[in-house]
Design a protein that fits this description.
The complex is a heterodimer of chains A (about 300) and B (about 300). Chain A has about 300 residues and is mainly α. Helices cover about 70% and strands about 0% of the residues of chain A. In chain A, helix 4 packs parallel to helix 9. Helix content of chain B is about 70%, strand content about 0%. In chain B, strands 1-2 form a two-stranded antiparallel sheet. The longest helix of chain B is centred in the first third of the chain and has 34 residues. Classes of the chains: A mainly alpha (about 300), B mainly alpha (about 300).
């Protein structure tokens, strides 16, 4: 602060409090609602004193929404996406930055083109792809009229159908969302700032590329990895459209999607206490990750978008 | 760009880039090509037969009043979300930047909504703005004298999804404005103060112009957010209703493709969205290319 401005300082803190209150209000209100019995929650306005039904509501919501299974699914999906994205993009960036080969520029350009194109803009064809991952091979097969060829060779009428569906499976939830260029980009930018001398020294000592990667590059990237873990975990856990499409089996669906079934509709009992209790519970894992890894989170968020 | 000292190996680099290429080709390029082909075809709902129809799907699309309405709805929605969340984010960040005490605590209290899924934000606001149980709805009815009912009135439903979407996005904007504010040189502020500029003047003539890159960047990001990531909010809160008043473009792709099974039209809509986002990305890189070098 440059000069003394008591009045402005007062307003600063007042507005800050107001801001924090507005940001926190929906959560606090939901938490209170989760502690009330049904008669209290449907009063207008709802009382602001927490009740004692928290555990009862949580138990009911837990069993009705099958939250145990679904939160587990969300965890598996989020960790799969996080791990897959980081591994795939880190070795990819290593290849692009530290090797010289023919298709380097092509590879880089083709990955670069996918930057920022979210799954939301190509849902239908990606869904068809997930329903049969082998469909490109099938298309090539059909294009070359290999069926005719095979039947001609064997003398029988044989038709080959290639089918491998990812619907209602963990791989279906994870793999299509690993296709993203942002992480590769971030690692590339970071690798370019690593001093040249390190690689020269490693080569002089006779280290192989993979030894250099394991012993030098990986330890140097630790903070970047930590930052990306936070961002990608939150991203994976909060996915909505994709899990909605690829899973139809309630045992395979994720927690964020499953919550939909707990929202009271017009003709139901207004059991908002259950819906909001479950909502608070489901949002907890990513919120905790962000709060406890705040430093890496802020770093990751800002670096990723550069 | 490549390192001055690099490794030579025959197969290793291909092996290392292979997973990325495989995932990109199967889940990005192949579907994108399929989508573009599909958008030129007219298929029956079960995808058994299709006919090549040139630009029929696109012409249908842009003469369909429902689609034009959806474009308008999306524009209104994204402008509202971006302006509300950016101005709130900037306001809170500049307040937090002035505060001397408890900076870390303030930051902690403000960033966590980032981690809340859009759909969950939707559920909470659905309750707060519920026409019969919601406390905020009650306040609106009582103090503003409005006959609040998002189930019946399209404009109310729009306000509801804007609130749910903007609330979550404020913390994202806050993080970036905080970073931007801390990068403003202290000496500039002090020099202006010595020259007698008031805090408001300093903000308006020094801080605000210096924040303009952040501002531009956040505008783009918020528009992308409200175009695409708000799908969860629409799906839990309004399902595009009432009467299509909150049916934004992404939701329409989903509805026409997966509920209505109109494959050609849905693919054409996907292609339109894809081109749109490519233009946005291109503009953004053109604008920030001075800051970051992207080469081969």
């Amino acid at each position: 602060m440059v000069e003394k401005t008591p009045l402005l300082d007062f307003f600063t803190y007042a507005f800050l409090m107001l801001g924090i209150f507005i940001v926190g209000f929906p959560i606090i209100y939901s938490l209170i609602a989760a502690t009330l019995p049904l008669e209290e929650v449907s009063k207008v306005p709802m009382p602001l004193i927490p009740g004692d039904q928290f555990m009862v509501n949580m138990k009911e919501a837990w069993s009705r929404g099958d939250l145990g299974t679904q939160i587990m699914n969300s965890f598996i999906m989020a960790s799969g996406i996080t791990f897959g994205k980081i591994v795939v993009s880190m070795i990819g960036a290593f290849s692009i930055v530290y090797f010289d080969y023919k298709f380097r520029v092509v590879a880089f350009a083709s990955v670069f083109c996918t930057l920022m194109l979210p799954v939301e803009v190509r849902i239908l064809p990606t869904y068809e792809m997930a329903a049969n991952v082998l469909s490109p091979l099938q298309a090539i097969w059909d294009l070359l009229h290999l069926n005719g060829l095979v039947s001609w060779f064997s003398g029988n009428d044989i038709s080959v159908t290639l089918n491998w569906s990812l619907l209602d499976s963990y791989s279906g939830l994870v793999f299509p969302l690993i296709a993203s260029a942002t992480c590769t980009f971030l690692f590339r930018q970071f690798f370019l700032t690593v001093p040249e001398e390190l690689c020269e020294a490693a080569k002089m000592d006779g280290a192989s590329p993979m030894t250099f990667f394991r012993k030098i590059l990986f330890p140097l990237s630790k903070t970047n990895i930590a930052a990306l873990v936070v961002i990608e975990f939150v991203y994976g856990y909060n996915q909505y459209l994709w899990p909605l499409l690829v899973t139809t089996n309630p045992k395979m669906t994720t927690a964020v999607i499953g919550l939909q079934n707990l929202i009271p509709q017009a003709d139901d009992l207004p059991e908002w206490n259950l819906a909001l209790g479950a909502a608070v519970l489901v949002m907890l894992p990513p919120v905790l990750v962000v709060l406890f890894m705040q430093r890496w989170f802020v770093k990751g968020l800002i670096e990723k978008e550069k | 760009m490549i390192k001055r000292s690099f490794f030579k190996s025959k197969y290793l680099p291909y092996l290392l880039i292979l997973p990325q290429m495989l995932v990109t080709l199967t889940f990005f390029y192949w579907p994108a090509i399929q989508g573009i082909i599909q958008s030129f075809l007219l298929s029956d709902p079960f995808g058994r037969q299709s006919k090549f129809v040139w630009f029929y799907n696109y012409i249908e699309l842009f003469t369909d009043p429902l689609y034009l309405k959806s474009i308008f709805t999306t524009l209104v929605f994204s402008i509202a979300v971006a302006s509300v969340s950016i101005s709130l984010g900037l306001f809170i960040a500049s307040m937090a930047n002035r505060a001397l005490r408890a900076k870390a605590l303030v930051r902690t209290m403000l960033i966590w909504p980032y981690a809340v899924a859009p759909a969950i934000s939707g559920i909470m606001w659905l309750f707060l703005l519920h026409p019969s149980y919601g406390v905020v709805a009650l306040a609106i009815k009582k103090w503003l004298g409005v006959d609040w009912n998002p189930v019946l009135y399209g404009s109310d439903a729009m306000v509801m999804i804007v609130m749910a979407s903007a609330w979550k996005q404020v913390s994202y904007n806050f993080v970036f404005f905080m970073a931007g504010l801390q990068a403003v040189p202290k000496s500039l502020i002090e020099a202006a103060a010595i020259d007698g500029a008031s805090p408001f003047k300093r903000f308006w003539y020094i801080t605000f112009p210096l924040l303009s890159p952040t501002f531009f960047f956040l505008t783009v990001m918020n528009i992308i957010y409200s175009f695409f990531e708000t799908f969860g909010i629409i799906h839990t809160v309004t399902q595009g209703g009432p009467g299509g008043s909150t049916n934004i473009l992404v939701y329409k792709v989903y509805q026409d493709g997966f509920v209505g099974l109109n494959l050609g039209s849905s693919s054409a809509q996907s292609v339109v969205l894809m081109s749109l986002i490519i233009v946005i990305t291109f503009l953004q890189f053109k604008f920030v290319e001075k800051k970051v070098q992207y080469g081969g």
